[in-house]
Design goal:
Blueprint lengths: L1 E6 L2 E4 L4 E9 L6 E7 L6 E7 L4 E3 L7 E6 L4 E6 L8 E8 L12 E2 L3 E6 L1
Parallel strand pairs: 2-11
Antiparallel strand pairs: 1-3, 3-8, 4-5, 4-9, 5-6, 7-8, 9-10, 9-11
Length: 122
Amino acid sequence: EVKLVESGGGSVQSGGSLRLSCAAFGHIYSAQCMGWFRQAPGKEREGVATIDSDGSTSYADSVKGRFTISQDNAKSMLYLQMNSLKSEDTAIYYCAADPFRCPRAKVDFRYWGQGTQVTVSS
């Protein structure tokens, strides 16, 4: 079992930056593929970025060049650095983990955090 707790959300103006953090507790070895997802009001949850246990990363086209996913295995932490934020980035951001290696479909991720709100004002 893995418990995930996100932090770092907030309100920022367009063009600004935020860094989201996700702390993982429990059987960390079960978190081979980790990722960030987001859900805007009235929309489905969508993938933002993933990182595999070997460090390889993948990004949604909408955030490429602006967001960076990283992890600190020693501290059991996952991060999402978000730069050049746009109003369309406004959403609840979720951290997720799965025991299997990436790539993983959204529905396959076994563990989810509660989410943290990111609001970008223009």
